[in-house]
Amino acid sequence: MHVDLYERIWMWAAAGLVVLFLGTILSTAALNAANPPSHLETIDPTTLASHPEFGAPRVVPHEDGTVTVSVRAETFSFTPDPIEVPANRPITFRITSADVLHGFQVVGTNANAMAIPGYVSQFTVTFPRAGEYTVACNEYCGLMHHGMVGKLIVKEATP
Amino acid sequence: MSSAEASRQRLAATHIGVAVAAFALAAALGLIQALSIADVAFPGRSESLYYIAVTAHGVLMALVFTTFFIMGFGYALAQVELGRIVGRGAAWVAFWLGVVGSAAAAETILRGQSTVLYTFYPPLRAHPLFYIGATLLVVASWIWGGVMVASYRSWRREHPGVAVPLPIHGMLAAVIIWYIATAGLAAEVVGMLIPWSLGWVKTVDPLVARTLFWWFGHPLVYFWLLPAYVLWYTVLPRVAGGRLFSDPLARMAFILFVLLSTPVGFHHQFADPGISSGWKLAHTFTTYAVVYPSLVTAFTVVASLEVAGRMKGARGLFDWTLRLPWGDPFFACVALSMIAFLFGGFGGLINAAYAMNGMVHNTAWIMGHFHVTLGTTVALTFMGGTYWLLPRLIARELRFPRLALLQPYLWFAGMVLFSTSYHLAGLRGLPRRVYSGALSGSEGASWHGLTVVAAAGAVVLFLSALSFVTVAAGTWLGGRRIVAPAFEFAVPLRPVTGPGVWDRLGMWAVAAVVLVALAYGYPLLHLLSHPRFGSPGFQPF
């Protein structure tokens, strides 16, 4: 197959570009543990009301300073609301849905995961800045989808 | 064109007509959405209307407009380049199946019984006719694919040892991608959603359904893009007065799309539970690999245009760009859609960037992204393709040529306002698909201004859409009857020798199926073998 010299140069450059991008992604995944949520845990969405964790989801601080936040999403609210967590501590969110798909997006951060009925989404983030954040549902869930908004309050951690 | 020939192209022309009609309705629904997000008051504004508009706009634009255009374009190419359509009767049956299916789905959407968006993720449950109608449209496209393949095989028997014409090569690549992609969709819709919506089974697994949807959802993009690339490679250089820079590399690009367009779907599911990060990373690799054929396409097509400029006497480094036919509606449509893809492609790289995706997932950024890719690169190329096809298919002169020329520039300007604003608003956190940018009422101070600019862009886009529909309908109904111009395709710089390795479509199709099995086999089996709980249906709309 004849390939013009200039096009050949371009093809190598393009391949180099793709490899460079992938290398960047691989190195952040390996070095900064920058991975998307990938936890596999199933749960019966029809009996959430009596579930020990998601029947009354709440913020649970641990002795080592980390925090676990369980969240139940349903049309058209998040529970608990507001969610209060300390700044600069690893916060592990565990999120599920009682009905349809929802999104859990802490506006202005990269905390962003799907709430899927039957599954628990789990990811860990640290909020460096104290303040009030909007939690928005970013997956269409029905007529009042846009109104499905919660609040996350990040407080300076007491030493 | 003789009347016998005109009647042979009636099949293609009728499909293009349905595509234009679907586009017209969808465009009006698009304007409603942008105004609503910006909280611009208009009569009849309501939550219900907004989400119905999102659903109908998505289904009509992404599924009906594109599929009918592609089927029509494919039939036109088969007639011209292969000299035959084998199974014309079946093709007409398919046409009516597609029309009836689309109309049934559209009807349940507009009645408010299926406000599930064009992604229809369960456990949102639509009216059964929504799923059945969509299935009929897909069945129609399967028949179309069969007619394309049968026509090719018939031609091949008479022309052994000849390379398949490049436009047909590209369309057959799109057919292969479509069969592989819709296998996932059929498993979801026929295997899960139709029985569930009819009440035959009580529950479905939302994550399994979503995974099957994205098995289909990303190659769907290449099913749209490849016919657009066929126009870029084979028609654009001709209209510009140049030569195709490299024929074999065009074929290589088409085959790379066949191989790589499906095993990439997890990049739509980075934020999902249940799929391991290793498999998400594997799909990230294939997603970046599928960028490569587009980068090659960029060089080959632009080099073909440079050849055109130089053949017209350009001597300097860049003055060839000024010698291109910017006053030709087809050329303007395609050239602007290529410029848009420069931005759309790089935006796509950000979406697929595994760790960066969390910043943009399900924000307005995504709306900005697919309106510059599907909404411009593909849609504007198809509009240009309509201007190029109509006179050749129905032997009428293009009506309102000045409006046709203004239209792509309007579209591009409107899209710059619309898409840029939503990209930025998404980075600031505006979730996608919301009735009101103020969300529950008091949010949105940091993005309200951007949503207003996007709404202004949507008004410009709507005017452009209106121009397109006026030209298409005007040509159809009142264009001056002429002798149909010939279908002429770009001649490659170097003559094509016999069929090369890229022409072995069957072999590449098998390789593509193997890659899909590797990319999806284990993660799907792993998920299916885990104890899971289904969901009953919900209709919160």
Structural overview:
The complex is a heterodimer of chains A (159) and B (541). With 159 residues, chain A is an alpha+beta fold. Chain A folds into two domains: 1-35; 45-155, Cupredoxins -  blue copper proteins (Immunoglobulin-like). Helix content of chain A is 17%, strand content 34%. Chain A contains one helix and ten strands, in the order H-E-E-E-E-E-E-E-E-E-E. Chain A has one helix at 5-31, and strands at residues 59-61, 67-74, 77-79, 83-86, 90-97, 102-106, 112-115, 121-126, 131-136, 149-155. In chain A, strands 1, 2, 3, 5 and 8 form a five-stranded mixed beta sheet that branches. In chain A, strands 4-10-9-6-7 form a five-stranded mixed beta sheet, with no helix packed on it. The longest helix of chain A is centred in the first third of the chain and has 27 residues, at 5-31. The termini of chain A are far apart. Chain B has 541 residues and is mostly helical. Chain B has three domains: 1-161; 163-234 and 242-266 and 278-324 and 497-527; 331-488, no CATH class. Helices cover 70% and strands 0% of the residues of chain B. Chain B contains 17 helices and no strands. Chain B has helices spanning 3-8, 10-37, 47-82, 88-110, 128-158, 166-197, 206-234, 236-240, 247-260, 277-289, 291-311, 329-351, 357-360, 364-394, 401-427, 448-478, 505-529. Chain B is globular, with a radius of gyration of 23 Å. The termini of chain B are far apart. The model of chain B has no long low-confidence stretch (mean pLDDT 95). Classes of the chains: A alpha+beta (159), B mainly alpha (541). Chains A and B meet through helix 1 and strand 7 of A and helix 3, helix 7, helix 9, helix 10 and helix 11 of B.
